[in-house]
Amino acid sequence: MRREEEQSVSPARAALRDATRAAHLRLHGHPALAALAAGTIAPTQYLQLLARLYGFHLPFERALIEAAPRHGVDLRIGARAHLLARDLVDLGAKREAIAGLPMATAPALRSPGEWLGALYVREGSTLGAARLAAALDPLLGAGNPRGRRFLSGGDAESWRECCAALEEGARRGLLPEIVEGARASFQAIELWLADRDGAPISVRAAPGRWTQCA
After folding, report:
1. How far is the C-alpha of 127 from the C-alpha of 188, rounded, in Å?
2. Which of 145, 165, 204, 205 has the fewest beta carbons under 10 Å from its own?
């Protein structure tokens, strides 16, 4: 099955995958993301990871949505960053603390190709996040959606639309710009997650195992 999937990958997506493979591997090695994938992430560590992801995805998502008309893109960009805020509230974070979280610098997305590269990273990370949701069962309880709405919110149709847009962009000769946009987006999230200067987010009570959210 995996061989069939690899054979079905278009040249454009193969180029993007090859160009971002090293960044993928580095992110997989991030301590919190690795613990999340292994099902061993601690409550406080997960809370801080969600807070950091919210600080990245909110401005990143807004930039994608706002730049789409400028580049003549007729593509639905579903808002998802708010799910991170809901997860944080579910896990005890104070709303005023969420509102005061540090935010990453929004990408400029100056060209259609750069925009498509950023979209590839965003939609690809959505699919990857969905694979991590089940690993939270030991922490949140099996079948409990609260605290992992963002990770569980992947949309296969959005990914198909993204792939179609990538192919159209490649046919227009935008592949070099798309690749650079994807690389820049990966670099931005790597740097953001590596920066540990942000203050810990305050919660209403010390986080336990959160199975009471079920």
Report:
1. 19
2. 205
